[in-house]
Write a structure and sequence with these properties.
Layout (H helix, E strand, L loop, with lengths): L3 E3 L2 E5 L2 E5 L2 E5 L2 E5 L7 H10 L7 E5 L5 H4 L2 H7 L4 E5 L3 H4 L6 H10 L7 H12 L8 E3 L4 E2 L5 E5 L8 E5 L4 E5 L3 E3 L2 E3 L9 H10 L7 E4 L3 E3 L3 H11 L1
Parallel strand pairs: 5-6, 6-7, 7-8, 12-15
Antiparallel strand pairs: 1-4, 2-3, 4-5, 9-10, 10-11, 11-12, 13-14, 15-16
């Protein structure tokens, strides 16, 4: 059985076709889900899991790489359907995922509002209201940089701040695979740092990519873009150079 399975989730959002890649890690009868899409995405995740012969009734853990709407939107509904599941995130992101503090993305949107031209404010208000409507869920397991988890034969947590301060990526050593979250994206067939407008600290994001050079990586799974496996070290160096 495959132990690392990217799920290709196709959907329409704001009248455009989009695609994201949550990832399933399997370990005997245990299933770990990394990120979970927008609110209402549980049926889509179930459908893709079934296509890969994975029974979500064995779901034991959900890892949230960071608290953006598209990464944790379905978290509360998944917890309701599978109440025994453990929710894991970085220590830094726990307070936002659990709803103890206001989302950094919402704080960013509110801070930018008065700088926007009038014609863009209606959309900005919609975006703020969307973020405010996000249902939160209690984090059970707080992860730190270099923690080693048993998932898929051994998974290292890597703190990769920049896109958000509490962002984490996952490195599965036995498979030389990195689950990047939004630390990296694939654009026009190339690795890149995620949209600068949504990356809270570009300099920190660049340092996080440089940190990845310490790992032997043969495959990167980006939440936005899917799988990348060509000239990874050179590609990472190019991201650092261009960022």
């Amino acid at each position: 059985m495959k132990q690392i399975i990217p799920l290709e989730i196709n959907f329409t959002y704001q009248d455009s076709r989009r695609r994201i890649y949550p990832v399933l890690l399997t370990n005997k009868d245990e299933v770990i889900l990394v990120d979970c899409g927008y609110p209402g995405f549980l049926p889509l995740i179930k459908e893709e899991a079934e296509k890969n012969d994975i029974d979500l009734n064995n779901l034991s853990t959900i890892v949230i790489t960071h608290h953006d709407y598209d990464h944790m939107g379905a978290l509360a509904e998944i917890k309701e359907e599978y109440p025994k599941v453990t929710i894991a995130s970085s220590l830094l992101d726990e307070k936002y995922i659990s709803g103890k503090e206001k989302s950094l993305r919402l704080q960013q949107a509110e801070a930018l509002y008065d700088t926007l031209p009038f014609e863009k404010r209606a959309h900005a208000e919609w975006f703020q209201n969307t973020l405010k409507s996000l249902r939160t869920a209690k984090v059970d397991l707080k992860l730190n940089d270099h923690d080693i988890m048993p998932w898929a034969g051994g998974t290292e947590i890597i703190a990769t701040p920049g896109h958000m301060p509490g962002h984490i990526s996952l490195y599965i050593k036995n498979y030389k695979t990195l689950i990047a979250g939004d630390a990296l994206v694939i654009e026009e067939g190339k690795l890149a740092i995620a949209n600068p407008n949504y990356t809270l600290d570009i300099s920190e994001a660049k340092r996080s990519v440089k940190k990845l050079l310490d790992y032997e990586i043969q495959r990167i799974i980006c939440y936005h873009g899917g799988e990348f496996n060509k000239n990874i070290r050179d590609s990472l160096l190019e991201v650092i150079k261009e960022a």
